[in-house]
Amino acid sequence: MPSRWLFAAGAWVLIALGLAHLFGHYSLVTAEAVDESHHRLLELMRGYQFDHGHNFLRSTMEILTGFSLAFSVLSLGLGLLDLVVLRHSTGWPPLLRGAATVNAGVFGIMTALALRYWFPEPFLFLATAFLCFVTALGLSPRRD
Asked: What was the pLDDT predicted at 52?
């Protein structure tokens, strides 16, 4: 069934996104300055801490690191969850259609955000996942 294959492809794209982002995360935390302005910017991002209330002191780099790791974990987790849904949806096709609907909506929005705010690599992964899920949705059998 093509909708199942496309759903599986979307799940694997999310897993690949999580792994690629995790490898990219390493370059974020080990970045070296290329000039004096970049050095000063990295110094401020790593060293200057804000009080975010309740004595939670965090630098911009710590916040960015946390969100970066969370994005990797979330992508991996959703991809794995989609594989579990795929496995258990054989006896209940509406489950796959519902999951494809949610994924298409979420990754459609994420693709738009990536197009506006990020760089090409996450955009391409997210757009590919979105296309897989929206096509799987379009090809999945409707409930009567």
From this structure: 84
